[in-house]
Specification:
Elements: H1 2-36, H2 40-51, H3 55-70, E1 76-82, H4 88-101, E2 106-112, H5 125-128, H6 130-133, E3 138-144, H7 156-165, E4 170-174, E5 191-196, H8 209-214, E6 217-220, H9 227-245, E7 257-260, H10 266-286, H11 288-314, H12 319-331, H13 337-348
Parallel strand pairs: 1-4, 1-5, 2-3, 2-4, 5-6, 6-7
Helix pairs in contact: 1-3, 2-7, 4-10, 12-13
Length: about 350
């Protein structure tokens, strides 16, 4: 009798799982159809879905991402980072409008810094890129960085997939600014631009080695306002070039491009975009682009494994009680952090 009840309960649970998967599949098919038709509202809602931390949203999000990934790979991705005040948003708007003039559809994923206390974010990029945000061939999506390091939001790579599924063939990813581990954006883009400012020689101490090593292009922005400002920009660029000459050569791709200019000068921005597009074309032809993306896939799998492992641990029914107990013991000096984590994981198995 007990076995019969257990089997019946198991069958009911399996039926619920199959029903949920079927509903998720239907929902994903519907959303994918809207994306393919260019529905921008549907794109915004799909991004919110994959950014959601709610367990009930995961099935639909994963089904949708599987469909988006099946046709991905054609869009080119720019990563843009730089010191605070370097004019990243101004450059991105100018570059985005230029790419649209070339016949491309442009998506901008702008990551805003979250408050460490409240988790809130200003999300002001749509106001800083008003002309681009209002263009029918563009889509600007600001996302809070949350607790994610690397200058990108947790779901940035997945969001880029959805943008490509919606027909955007140039995706520009703006980071929060040069910091401790900004190089994550390099792991998900095809070309990586570092924007700097004149008089930045002293500021080189604040730029991490990995960012300089991995930059495909280094551009000193705000090189306008007269000969004095332009000379300051050239001087700053020379310092950065000298610093790069002391570092190892890039593991993949060609040596970085160097230049100065102003993001407010459309012709100068167009010149840099010309160089970046040419570099991407060469990389596609000689196999470097495919090699870079293969390497990125490995890094993405590791990141997703870590994120999914953490999500499953936190969703365990016993997690909250065990976590509170270990935090209390840690505050009273009864247990070391690494020992607390080990015990937590062992207790949830």
């Amino acid at each position: 009798m007990a076995n019969d009840l257990e089997n019946e309960a198991r069958q009911r649970a399996l039926a619920r799982i199959r029903e949920a998967r079927g509903q998720a599949s239907q929902d994903a098919d519907h959303r994918m159809g809207l994306l393919a038709a260019g529905d921008r509202t549907a794109l915004a809602r799909a991004i919110s879905l994959v950014e959601s931390a709610r367990p009930e949203d995961r099935a639909v999000a994963e089904a949708l991402l599987q469909r988006a990934a099946s046709g991905a790979g054609k869009a080119l991705r720019y990563g843009i980072t730089g010191v605070p005040g370097a004019g990243k948003s101004t450059w991105i708007e100018a570059a985005g409008l230029d790419l649209i003039q070339r016949g491309h559809r442009v998506a901008v994923l702008a990551v805003d810094p979250s408050s460490s206390r409240t988790g809130g974010s200003l999300l002001g990029d749509k106001t800083r890129m008003s002309a681009l945000a209002q263009h029918p061939q563009a889509f600007v999506r600001p996302s809070p960085s949350g607790q994610t390091l690397g200058g990108v939001a947790e779901a940035t790579a997945e969001t880029a997939l959805l943008c490509e599924a919606a027909g955007f063939d140039r995706i520009l990813i703006e980071t929060v600014g040069v910091g401790q581990s900004e190089t994550e954006v390099r792991r998900m883009t095809d070309v990586f631009l570092l924007l700097l400012i004149p008089g930045g020689g002293d500021g080189i101490q604040g730029i991490k080695r990995g960012i300089l090593e991995w930059a495909d292009a280094v551009w000193v922005n705000k090189a306008d306002g007269g000969p004095e400002r332009q000379e300051a920009a050239k001087s700053a660029l020379a310092i950065y070039q000298g610093a790069l000459s002391l570092l190892s050569a890039p593991a993949e791709g060609a040596p970085p491009l160097f230049g100065t200019g102003s993001a407010r000068d459309a012709a100068q921005v167009r010149g840099l975009v010309d160089q970046l597009e040419a570099r991407l074309q060469v990389a596609a032809e000689n196999g470097q682009l495919q090699a870079r993306r293969k390497h990125q896939m490995g890094a993405s799998l590791e990141a997703l494994l870590a994120a999914e492992s953490l999500r499953r641990v936190r969703n365990h029914p016993d997690f909250n009680a065990a976590w509170r107990r270990l935090q209390d013991e840690g505050q009273h000096g009864q247990i070391l952090p690494y020992e607390a984590v080990r015990r937590l994981l062992e207790g949830l198995n």
